[in-house]
Design brief:
The complex is a heterodimer of chains A (233) and B (329).
Chain A (H helix, E strand, L loop, with lengths): L11 E4 L4 E5 L6 H14 L5 E7 L2 E6 L6 H13 L10 E9 L6 H8 L3 H8 L3 E6 L8 E3 L14 E4 L3 E5 L2 E4 L10 E4 L2 E6 L21 E10 L1
Parallel strand pairs in A: 5-13
Antiparallel strand pairs in A: 1-2, 2-4, 3-4, 5-12, 6-7, 6-13, 8-11, 9-10, 9-12
Helix pairs in contact in A: 3-4
Chain B lengths: L1 E6 L4 E3 L19 H9 L9 E4 L4 E5 L3 E9 L2 E3 L2 E2 L4 E5 L4 E4 L4 E9 L3 E2 L28 E4 L3 E5 L5 E2 L3 H4 L9 E8 L8 H9 L2 E7 L3 E5 L15 E2 L4 E3 L7 E3 L6 E2 L3 E5 L4 H5 L6 E6 L2 H25 E5 L1
The chains are: A alpha+beta (233), B alpha+beta (329).
């Protein structure tokens, strides 16, 4: 099975029904391209027919008012706006997170090592050697989608999801790696996921908290560094 | 004020959804059938976006604690006020002490109860909707439970020119289109970015086959089952991207999933199509075991459908303005 990642030669805007558009940027994931997406996201949010925006990895979702807007007209304007959007943005703040790789909570580390033909130590060391940037909001409130996984650690997502710990986990899925916040009340202990759990953050702060203003700890462009506390077989 | 005497699980306070919070990766939540919710408000003269109760499971018994107006819309859920049958899609004055019973559904899945003034729970990030997914909003982020007391947003008693109340033509009649079989629901769908990646046989069966709603269907999404899996010519890995309710994803199993109000705000499965905004309410009223059929649609048709919904809702609001008179409680 071919598990390469889709890469476009030119940017593309597609319809997501009649009330949203998706801009897919050209080329591979990179910080300059993603910075352009953040800038475009803020600009487009000011357009009168736009209800909300949400950056993805190399993409931008633009939610429209289905009565007020002409999606095909907005699609043309969105593509024009993308072509003249610049990159360039100051680096965000840095959060350091201690990690126990492998063991009971990083139960998929041996499987990832086997898939990649590496030792568990070299997977952990390579994973902790790079800095990760918050590229896009996540599937729900949390740390979001991170960019920075070394290409040598790309691991295709599982075809059939498995149950894995929901809190404080570090996982690899495809070309991405993510971090989950600590256990929260009213939330399940385990989640179904196609990603591989490779470690557990020992003292990860709560990423989203209504008592804070703003409630999210990290914003787009902020960075995370993982520090190896231990590697368990 | 309304007291919950008895309720089945998964019934919650909802409005039209939490819009503008995608920067936090938040899906909109809100009523699954936003049209029925808007009508439950419109027939009482409330703003469309006032909060109402969404009932997904039955039975339910509620006691009215102060004179008000109530409306029950959405699924036909055998509503009785002090034992007297309330027709579906009906608004009526309710007196302190009366008991509203919802026995169970005979048609549709989700019922909505509007209250004059709307349900008063705190507005969190711009909405009163309960996010059952993330555990906030509505009543402290949870479903209704026996003993809960819900307040109305403004203290109004409402007087009807007709004590019997009044009803409206249901959207299934007013907004009917196409010819569906007895246990089928037609949904208009615009092909999405990955549609061309599916092989010819899969594209054909997407439109022509019936898709059965499996029991794994809820506010997050509906998992469907069809005769043959939908396959792509090349299984390319997708990057994570934001998605909207109505998105039809195809996971590796080839059996599609429609993502809905409480879905993840982003995902990585290919999108074969997206149900148009004007038809999302139809999904909310289709039950497991029933069949969905996808009808190919373009933007022009979708906009006409959106305008039909808007016209219908405005007409309901116009009628309702003749029926009720408000006075301070």
């Amino acid at each position: 099975m071919n598990t390469g990642v889709v890469e476009l030669a030119a940017p593309r805007v597609s319809l997501c029904g009649d009330a949203a558009l998706l801009l897919d940027a050209e080329g591979s994931l990179s910080l300059p391209t993603q910075q352009r997406i953040w800038t475009l996201s803020e600009e487009v949010l000011q357009w009168p027919e736009v209800v909300d925006t949400q950056p993805g990895m190399n993409s931008l979702l633009v939610v429209l008012d289905p009565i007020k807007s002409d999606p095909e007209g907005v699609a043309t304007r969105l593509l024009d706006a993308w072509l003249r959007t610049d990159s360039g943005r100051p680096a965000g703040r840095l959060l350091e997170v201690g990690v126990v790789y492998g063991g009971e909570w990083g139960m998929d580390l041996p499987e990832v090592a086997r898939i990649l033909g590496m030792t568990i130590e070299s997977v952990a060391q390579l994973h902790a050697s790079t800095e990760y940037t918050v590229f896009a909001p996540g599937v729900g409130p949390g740390y979001g989608y991170l960019f920075g996984l070394d290409p040598k650690l790309f691991t295709p997502r599982r075809q059939v999801p498995v149950m894995r710990p929901a809190d404080s986990s570090i996982a690899i899925g495809g070309a991405q790696s993510n971090l989950r916040g600590p256990r929260m009340p009213k939330k399940p202990d385990m989640v179904a996921t196609g990603w591989y759990s490779v470690g557990r953050a020992t003292d990860v702060p709560v990423p989203f908290d209504f008592s804070r203003q703003p409630p999210n700890l990290l914003s787009l462009g902020d960075r995370i560094r993982f520090r190896i506390e231990r590697i368990d077989a | 004020m309304i007291e919950v005497i008895e309720t089945a699980p998964l019934n919650s306070v909802q409005d039209l959804g939490r819009v503008g919070m995608r920067k936090f990766g938040m899906s909109p939540a809100g009523g699954m059938d936003r049209l029925a919710l808007a009508i439950a408000n419109a027939v009482l003269g409330n703003p469309r976006g006032a909060a109402a109760i969404e009932f997904q499971m039955f039975p339910v018994r509620l006691r009215i604690l102060a004179d008000t107006g109530i409306a029950v819309t959405g699924a036909d859920c055998n509503a009785r006020l002090d034992g007297r049958v309330l027709p579906p899609w009906w608004a009526i004055p309710a007196r302190a002490g009366q008991v509203l019973e919802l026995e169970g559904v005979t048609k549709g899945v989700r019922g909505y109860m509007g209250v004059a003034g709307g349900i008063d729970v705190p507005i969190i990030l711009g909405s009163r909707s309960t996010s059952l997914r993330d555990g906030f909003g509505g009543l402290d982020g949870r479903a209704l439970a026996a003993g809960d007391v819900l307040r109305s947003a403004e203290l109004v008693a409402i007087a009807s020119r007709d004590a019997q109340g009044f009803g409206v033509q249901p959207p299934s009649v007013a907004l009917a289109f196409g010819t569906a079989g007895p246990r089928e629901t037609l949904l208009r769908v615009i092909p999405a970015a990955e549609y061309p990646q599916f092989d010819d046989a899969s594209q054909t069966s997407f439109w022509n086959a019936g898709w059965t709603i499996t029991p794994r269907s809820n506010r997050q999404g509906y998992q469907l089952a069809g005769a043959a899996p939908l396959l792509r010519t090349e299984a390319l890995e997708m990057r994570s991207h934001a998605i909207v309710p109505g998105t039809i994803q195809v996971p590796p199993s080839g059996q599609p999933i429609i993502q809905l109000a409480d879905a993840n705000s982003a995902g990585g499965y290919p999108k074969i199509g997206v149900v148009i905004d004007a038809d999302l309410w139809r999904i909310a009223q289709a039950a497991p075991g029933q069949i969905l059929r996808f009808v190919e649609c373009d933007v022009k048709t979708a906009r006409a459908a959106a305008r039909d919904v808007a016209t219908y809702l405005s007409e309901v609001e116009r009628l309702s303005s003749y029926v009720w008179s408000r006075r301070a409680a």
